[in-house]
From TrEMBL:
It holds the Pfam family FERM_C. Residues 395-426 are annotated as: Disordered. Keywords: Membrane, Transmembrane, Transmembrane helix. This is FERM domain-containing protein 3. It is a single-pass membrane protein. One of its GO terms (biological process) is actomyosin structure organization.
Length: 623
């Protein structure tokens, strides 16, 4: 276990130092001592120096507060202030924070290996939803990277069973993984098997999704996430919403309610979701702000401070501090050093697996529900595996069981120079590989489909990440994610006010409003009364969201002005009637207006108040 001590410029006593333990992606741990004013960037740099990692902008450090709410460690704030009342020593986790949009553009093998470890965890914990065919191929790549080529003398007939790849895996899935491992991946070194796994994983709909459990306006459970493409919502086995970052105009929250304001089909769209706690809602908002800045902005200088507020009352303010995706890719292309040595974890070392000797390793959390179907469901899924998943980016044929063919001219995920340099790097590690295996297996890219038109079926399975990813971990026996939300379902009146979250219902409500307005105009034309006109105006105002916002802001402004006047006017009056000799007060006292106010209003009012006070005192004394 490595130890490192950071010292600030000021001299502090040793009793003010704090011990931090950081758990890495392979579940090994490193520790360091920090001072109370040490900022989060020091810990991230410490881990990156331990790995000798240069492409570090994809990664972050995550921790859990005493209320079991997850947070990303902010680099510009002191660690102690962020951890608050957490028990010492502080325990944190080094994880991938921003998933690369195209893994082929990662320059160094070390960075790809760390991303591979993160995706391996995502598969195990159910965050990366895999149909049967994809699950078999990804599992086979993991086995090839961990064990190498299949050897009948070393590997028993059920050797896949010793791998814990998915929350629950059927015998049919294990047999398919063995078949691919034996026949298709032979000769691939660990680096190439990992790269093939990345290439297949990033085409899945749930690649890079850090799921946030919420409830929609009907009270149904949904999982929100942020990817390189945009904002996504999963419910059941469908992706019900995808808003590209160019279409997202604002993210905000109020209490437990999270709002996504954007444009869809040239119409304004407001999506409303409810989290279990205000802290979970704020964490969701901050994650959205960071992902939007990282993937959308072309330069870090374009990042602005955002606020979850309206005009007059400032809410939470936050600004992402770091490089954006384009800057990270440019910096990676300029790396000119010998590739660092990659120290891969041995099979059985990670907590996400069971060793061949059946050693008992501690798991972080038990899964809520299986992330894979039963054997019967597998038989149904195998027939439709090639058409059940459409990627967020380009659609790909799901045929990982076929032998890899030479890439066509349309199969370009990066420049030719990048492909050739990457193949040369892998060839140096895999001297015995055949020529057909030197280039990573890339799915054939077809024409880009129109997205966002309808709910997109992502799998035969329901998207149900396990408990370890939920802000408040719960067990399946406790009704799963439903218990995260202690508040009852909203009243029908509130649901009606929030129906704008669905575009179809929004159009229906708008048509109903138009009919009501037409009826009101006709009635007013017949009656011609002033009261009817006022009522109609009020209804029109109440039905307009922008007018409501302006009226609310104006009301708050009036309240603030009245409150200031109620405080300043009496204070000024007391100063004028006091004996304080200040030049501007003396000048005001000499004006005729003040003398008239003093003798005609102030003096009689003071005598009346003193008379009432004396009468009250006499009554009290007589009693």
């Amino acid at each position: 276990m490595k130890m490192l001590r950071f010292r600030s410029p000021s001299i502090r006593s040793l009793d003010q130092e704090v011990l931090c333990t950081i758990r890495l992606l392979d579940d090994s741990e490193i520790s360091c001592s920090i001072q109370r004013d040490t900022k989060g960037q020091f810990l991230l740099d410490h881990v990156c120096n331990f790995y000798n990692l240069l492409e570090k902008d994809y990664f972050g450090i995550r921790y859990v507060d005493p209320e079991k709410q997850r947070h990303w460690l902010e680099p510009n704030k002191p660690v102690v202030k962020q951890m608050k009342s957490a028990q010492q020593p502080y325990t944190m986790c080094f994880r991938v924070k921003f998933y690369p949009h195209e893994p082929m553009k990662i320059k160094e093998e070390l960075t790809r290996y760390l991303l591979y470890l993160q995706l391996k965890r995502d598969i195990y914990h159910g965050r990366l939803l895999c149909p049967f065919a994809e699950a078999a191929y990804l599992g086979a790549c993991i086995v090839q990277a961990e064990l190498g080529d299949y050897d009948p003398e070393e590997h028993p007939s059920d050797y896949i069973r010793d791998f814990k790849l998915f929350p629950k895996q059927s015998l049919k899935l294990e047999r398919k993984i063995m078949e691919i491992h034996k026949n298709e991946l032979r000769g691939q070194c660990a680096a190439l098997a990992e790269l093939n796994m990345l290439q297949r994983a990033y085409t899945l709909e749930t690649y890079g999704v850090d799921p946030h459990p919420c409830k929609d306006f009907t009270g149904a459970i949904a999982f929100l996430g942020f990817t390189a493409t945009g904002f996504v919502v999963f419910q059941g086995n469908k992706r019900i919403h995808l808003l590209k970052w160019t279409d997202v105009s604002k993210l905000k929250f109020e209490g437990k309610t999270f709002y996504v304001i954007g444009i869809q089909k040239e119409k304004k769209l407001v999506l409303t979701f409810h989290t279990s706690t205000p802290a979970a809602c704020k964490h969701l908002w901050k994650c959205g702000v960071e992902n939007q800045a990282f993937y959308k902005c072309a330069k870090s200088s374009q990042i602005k401070t955002v606020s979850s507020s309206n005009i007059f009352f400032k809410g939470s303010r936050f600004r992402y501090s770091g490089k954006v995706a384009k800057e990270v890719i440019e910096a990676s292309s300029k790396i000119q050093r010998d590739p660092p040595e990659v120290h891969r974890a041995q099979f059985g070392q990670s907590r996400s697996f069971n060793s061949l000797s059946h050693k008992n390793l501690i798991m972080n959390m038990e899964p809520l529900v299986p992330a894979l179907p039963s054997t019967i469901e597998y038989e149904e899924a195998a027939a439709a595996a090639d058409s059940s998943v459409v990627a967020v980016k380009d659609p790909v044929p799901l045929s990982p069981l076929e032998p890899p063919a030479a890439p066509a001219h349309t199969e370009q995920l990066s420049t030719k120079g990048e492909n050739s340099s990457l193949s040369n790097d892998l060839q140096s590690h895999c001297v015995s590989m055949e020529t057909s295996n030197l280039r990573p297996q890339t799915p054939k890219v077809e024409e880009r489909l129109e997205e966002d038109e309808e709910a997109l079926t992502i799998s035969e399975l329901s998207y149900s990440p396990c408990a370890s990813m939920l802000p408040t971990p719960v067990d399946d026996s406790q009704a799963g994610a439903s218990l995260l939300f202690s508040s009852p379902v909203q009243s029908p009146a509130r649901l009606l006010r929030e129906l704008h979250a669905d575009p179809d219902i929004q159009a229906q409500l708008e048509a109903e409003r138009e009919r009501e307005r037409a009826y009101e105009r006709a009635r007013l034309a017949a009656a011609g009364g002033i009261s009817g006109a006022l009522t109609s105006s009020l209804r029109l105002l109440s039905s307009n969201e922008r007018v409501n916002t302006c009226v609310l802001g104006l009301a708050r402004l009036v309240a603030v002005v009245v409150g200031v006047l109620l405080v300043t006017v009496p204070t000024l009056l007391l100063l004028l009637e006091s004996d304080i000799d200040v030049s501007f007060l003396h000048e005001i006292r000499q004006t005729p207006e003040f003398e008239q106010f003093h003798y005609e209003y102030y003096c009689p009012l003071r005598r009346w108040i003193l008379c009432k006070i004396s009468m009250a005192m006499e009554n009290l004394s007589s009693d």
